[in-house]
């Protein structure tokens, strides 16, 4: 998660220029996570510098309220949590798509994988599932390898689905996630805390690509 300081923005834009993609995490509601981060202003600021895909993870209890502002700010993807959207996910997905963004659904470690099946198999489905490999809210947590069973289950059930993993991903854990079937990786601390972020990103990308070629 990033703030609005010039130093942080410059660092993020460098990575964007090198690799063409970034995934800003947006935690805005203290009823869902205990901390607050900034959302639309960060996206709007980054969009001034890049045409890269900007994917937003909404850790909030009222994701519908953020579709319009994030769309206007320039977000490319909008991922909401299944735990707070079981009653209105169809309306939410329709709204996200109508604003030109790609809809995704996330689930916390304690949420059964079966909870996302209706959202993937529905008439107007999400296009990505994000499996949290830490409890949402704070960066730098330890990777939970037991969550890879969810990834394997999803990959077997939906061979062409985009499956993202978020939490504790880095050089020591990427092979576990990639071999389980994850093809989208969120890495924060391991990249921006590294002496050579580009080398870490190259390693993460190579691991995913190698696993995809083997499957």
From TrEMBL:
Highest classification ranks of the organism: Eukaryota, Viridiplantae, Streptophyta, Embryophyta, Tracheophyta
UniProt-listed Gene3D superfamilies: Aldolase class I (3.20.20.70)
Recorded superkingdom: Eukaryota
Cited InterPro entries: Aldolase_TIM (IPR013785), Ribul_P_3_epim-like (IPR000056), RibuloseP-bd_barrel (IPR011060)
Protein name from the UniProt record: PREDICTED: ribulose-phosphate 3-epimerase
Pfam families: Ribul_P_3_epim
Organism: Prunus dulcis (Almond)
Biological processes per GO annotation: carbohydrate metabolic process
UniProtKB keywords: Isomerase, Metal-binding
């Amino acid at each position: 998660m990033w703030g609005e300081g010039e130093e942080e923005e410059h660092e993020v834009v460098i990575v964007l220029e090198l690799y063409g993609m970034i995934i800003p995490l947006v935690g805005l509601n203290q009823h869902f996570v205990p901390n607050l981060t900034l959302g639309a202003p960060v996206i709007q600021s980054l969009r001034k510098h890049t045409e890269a895909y900007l994917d937003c993870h909404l850790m909030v209890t009222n994701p519908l309220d953020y579709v319009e502002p994030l769309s206007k700010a320039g977000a490319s993807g909008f991922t909401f949590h299944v735990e707070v959207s079981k009653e209105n996910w169809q309306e939410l997905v329709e709204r996200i798509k109508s604003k030109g963004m790609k809809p995704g659904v996330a689930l916390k470690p304690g949420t059964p994988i079966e909870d996302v099946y209706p959202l993937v198999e529905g008439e107007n489905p999400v296009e990505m599932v994000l499996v949290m490999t830490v409890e949402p809210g704070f960066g730098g947590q330890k990777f939970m390898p037991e969550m890879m069973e969810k990834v394997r289950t999803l990959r077997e059930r939906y061979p062409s689905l985009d499956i993202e993993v978020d939490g504790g991903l880095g050089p020591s854990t990427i092979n576990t996630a990639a071999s389980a079937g994850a093809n989208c990786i969120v890495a924060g601390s391991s990249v921006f805390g590294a002496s050579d972020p580009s080398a870490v990103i190259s390693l993460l990308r190579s691991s995913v690509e190698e696993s995809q070629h083997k499957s």
